[in-house]
Design a protein that fits this description.
By secondary structure, the protein is an alpha+beta fold. The chain has four domains: about 90 residues, no CATH class; about 110 residues, FAD/NAD(P)-binding domain; about 120 residues, FAD/NAD(P)-binding domain (3-Layer(bba) Sandwich); about 110 residues, no CATH class. About 20% of the residues lie in helices and about 25% in strands. It has nine helices and 20 strands. The strands form six sheets. A six-stranded mixed beta sheet has the order 10-9-8-7-6-11. A five-stranded antiparallel beta sheet has the order 17-16-18-19-20. Strands 1-2-3 form a three-stranded antiparallel beta sheet, with no helix packed on it. Helix 6 packs across helix 9. The longest helix is centred in the C-terminal third of the chain and has 20 residues. It is globular and about 80 Å long.
């Protein structure tokens, strides 16, 4: 492992700008800290094998909020790296990439590294700006000044996603007027009933807009930005076709998102997708265009999965990609190094209760709904085997001939319910189970539904 940072947690020395994360850690939860079930309530701790190093974030937070502060997250990662004795070469920057027969060569500021399998976990941390006249002359979110320097200013923020609303929240007591603008309407997570949209922590600017309290949330394209002495003129065009609307403001900030610093990987054949040009990936986070190149961490969000009901994965956060990472390690071990993981046998009499226990409490399934699944396969010699947690899309595209995948899904109404995907002779069938207001699916109704789905396959 090499890192350009001087120590673990480097990104959290800079962002989020206004300190608090959007991911929570709940010290007091229905399950014991450090248990697998507890991970559902702790979105920020990493997942070591050693029991003593689990749920580390709970030992670092000061108790003022269950959203960790930026310095607390930095200490969480640094403590994890120190206590697990991870071998990391810090201050080592990757500069170029090339192939040498069957090896990849990574040139760095500390010399060359040769490997069979490179995994790039470089984050989605490089400021990205859309094509827009004048945008090159304004600061990006990454360049935001201290909040008090915006006192008494009129501030125009380009973008209506979390980063834009985060800045607006931090400026509320300072700026005399705040405008947030983009062509599409703002989506709020409390309306989408998912992590899609602006999170509840940043809703105050939206309420101020609704109540005419000094914030304007505008659906409009930004046509161009002009410098007018010490100020700016922002030309917008309303999305509803009602005409142009210019703004005279003191500051403009581009909260337009980030991309990955891929350096020369596109020249090595790594294709990118989407407006932010993230690397296109398979369900196992391998480059879709350059086999043998893998990605880790927040870049996994570019492998979206099925997007059932339009809801993406949680791979952009620690609580999602930490599980992807375990699966990725297994995949690389099996595919490239011939290391196989044992598949334990599940007794036929325990299959139903096991699957219902998983959909009730497995953190992998709760954090990665419609994305990761618990997979059981039928082996003619050994019986029913537990194939572990795997990407649901892979199971449906090319899974075993006779198997079942158990996952959780959430519909637009906010109902969370288990789904079993069975494969008989390679043909997949979907079985939706009923939701439960307490999210406990270990009921007789659910038992009967699972038995019905698995009859003739496992039962």
């Amino acid at each position: 492992m090499i890192s350009a940072d001087e120590s673990a947690g480097g990104m959290f020395r800079r962002w989020p700008f206004f300190q608090r994360l959007l991911s929570w850690t709940k010290p007091y939860a229905p399950f014991e800290r450090g248990s697998r079930e507890y991970e559902r309530y702790d979105w920020n701790s990493l997942l070591p094998e050693e029991a003593d190093n689990r749920a580390l974030m709970t030992t670092i937070m000061d108790g003022t909020s269950y959203y960790p502060s930026r310095p607390e997250m930095e200490r969480n990662l640094a403590t994890f790296a120190e206590r697990t004795k991870l071998a990391v070469r810090y201050g080592c920057r990757w500069t170029t990439t090339r192939r040498d027969d069957d090896r990849w060569v990574l040139e760095t500021t500390d010399g060359e590294y040769r490997c069979q399998v490179p995994i790039f976990a470089v984050g989605v941390s490089q400021p990205w700006r859309p094509a827009m006249p004048g945008i090159e002359d304004i600061p990006h979110y990454a360049d935001t000044r201290p909040a008090e320097t915006y006192a008494g200013k009129r501030v125009f923020i380009i973008g209506k996603e979390n980063s834009g609303f985060e800045l607006a929240t931090g400026f509320l007591q300072w700026a005399k007027q705040i405008v947030l603008a983009s062509p599409s309407a703002a989506k709020l997570s409390i309306n989408t009933r998912s992590l899609v949209g602006v999170r509840a922590r940043y809703v105050q600017p939206y309420e101020d807009h609704v109540l005419a309290g000094g914030v304007i949330v505008l659906d409009a394209s930004i046509e161009r930005i002009e410098r007018t002495g010490a100020a700016y003129r922002v030309h917008t065009r309303r999305s509803d076709g009602s005409g142009d609307l210019p703004f005279e403001v003191d500051d403009v900030i581009a909260a337009t998102g980030f991309t990955s610093p891929l350096l020369d990987l596109p020249r090595q054949g790594v294709a990118t997708v989407g407006r932010n040009h993230l690397p296109a990936q398979t369900p196992f986070w391998e480059s879709a265009s350059t086999p043998g190149v893998y990605f880790g961490g927040t870049i996994h969000q570019a492998s979206p999965g099925l997007r059932k009901h339009g809801i993406p994965s949680n791979s952009g956060g620690v609580n999602g990609h930490r599980y992807n990472g375990r699966i990725l390690a297994r995949r690389v071990a099996e595919k490239h190094f011939g290391i196989t993981v044992d598949k334990p046998v599940v007794a036929k009499a325990e299959v139903v209760s096991y699957l219902l226990r998983e959909v009730t409490s497995a953190p992998e399934l709760w954090h990665q709904k419609s994305y990761l699944a618990r997979v059981l396969i039928r082996d003619e010699k050994r019986g029913i085997l537990d194939d572990g947690i795997l990407p649901l899309q892979h199971f449906l595209d090319s899974g075993p001939a006779d198997a079942v995948a158990a996952t959780l899904e959430e519909n637009p109404a906010g109902d969370i319910y288990p789904v079993l995907y069975t494969r008989r002779g390679g043909v997949s069938t979907e079985h939706d189970l009923a939701p439960n207001p307490l999210h406990d699916f270990r009921t007789r109704e659910h038992e009967a539904a699972v038995v019905d789905a698995l009859t003739g396959l496992f039962l």
